[in-house]
Amino acid sequence: MKLEYEVDDKPGFLKSSLLGFQNILTAFSGIIAVPLSIAAIAGTNVSETSILISAALLASGICSFIQTRGIFKGNAKVGIGLPTIMGTDFGFVPPANAVINTMGGGLAGYFGATILGALLELILSFFIKPLLRFFPEVVTGTVITLIGITMMPVAFDWVGGGYGAENYGDPLFIGIAVFTFLLIIFINHYGRGFATTASVFIAMIISYIICIPMGIVDFSQVAAAPWIKIPELFPFGVKFDLRFVVPFIAGYLVTIIETVGVMKTLGTVCEVELSDADISSGVRADAIGSMLSPVFGSGAAQTFSQNVGLIPLTKCASKKVALFSSFILIIMSFCPKFATLVSIMPSPILGGAGILMFGTILGSGMQALSKAKFSTKNIMIIAGGIGVGIGITMRPDIVSKLPSLISALFSSGISGGTIVAVILNILLVEKEY
């Protein structure tokens, strides 16, 4: 593959703007889906949801700039210095649900746990090489698989119109979700180039437009929202409690593993040789981004792999284009009217997309597991980790009477399953025949 624009090439303003906006379209559904998920979990109103979406856009822009531009030098370097787009990560939605609802921390507890957990990722970014031995493919695959499985009930609640909704499961809601689901598949499978890459975004917009004449979209909130608003610091407050951090530990450990893989792939498609120090600086940018994001009201940040996949497709690896993307995201975050327009999107649309998005995560986990040897030891790790994770997801009250520390450790299916998988990997010795 020959790149049309290499890392240090600088396309003109118009080209950089258009290519930068293409990056945003590719990542947009991922950026907004997480704050919409958090809003549904926390039961926020339209105004509060728009704040979460604006904050996610702002945090994504700032974090993308840091990761792409790179700051500081030497062992303290933050950011890999290659074209990347960062955004809120789905892997942190299950622990967010545990903190907000199961543990009663609310949004303030969620943001506090995000910051404290990011400190762990920052520390571990200096020990990337030795840390990876605790996460072989069988453990990583088990954890990623669990993320997809444990989020599926959330997707189906969206399909039904939102958990607790008076008309939960209305056939109209299910029809909207099915239409969105099938439209994404159709565009992704039969589309070409950019249409395939942006299939989720395109399908959600089409479904949104179709919902308008049905009378289930209320634009009065959009009309009331201001055009311009300066973001607040800690709009939902912040609460630091070590108990709330526990469900996030697994998420941050998985983020490190995934980011290492994304960084290696990024180096390959950008045709740049990366050292262990470069990869560590990329993980460090994820950590710093996750510490900064809650200040504006957004969740933990991670480098988006879909934008890495866009580079060989467009043959554009220019850092300038990625930096333009970050500036556009920041500008978009200052327009509450736009954020409100997104926040009133009917939840069945998100449900139809969510089934595929969470299913894709599940598929990624299965793909990782397929690379592991299916030995007796590994089968026990998979069975134990996934079994415990699904069990806790289905029956979370089972751990409520355990000592507080243990209850916190197993407060979500993802954290409980990860702990079991890591421990089994350490304790079990492969049989020799």
From TrEMBL:
It is a multi-pass membrane protein. It comes from the Bacteria. Keywords: Membrane, Transmembrane, Transmembrane helix, Transport. One of its GO terms (cellular component) is plasma membrane. One of its GO terms (molecular function) is xanthine transmembrane transporter activity. It is found in: Membrane. The chain crosses the membrane at residues 21-43, 49-66, 108-127, 134-156, 168-187, 194-216, 236-257, 321-339, 345-366, 378-394, 406-429. InterPro entries: NCS2, Xan_ur_permease. The keyword Transmembrane applies. Belongs to the nucleobase:cation symporter-2 (NCS2) (TC 2.A.40) family. This is Purine permease. It comes from Peptoniphilus porci.
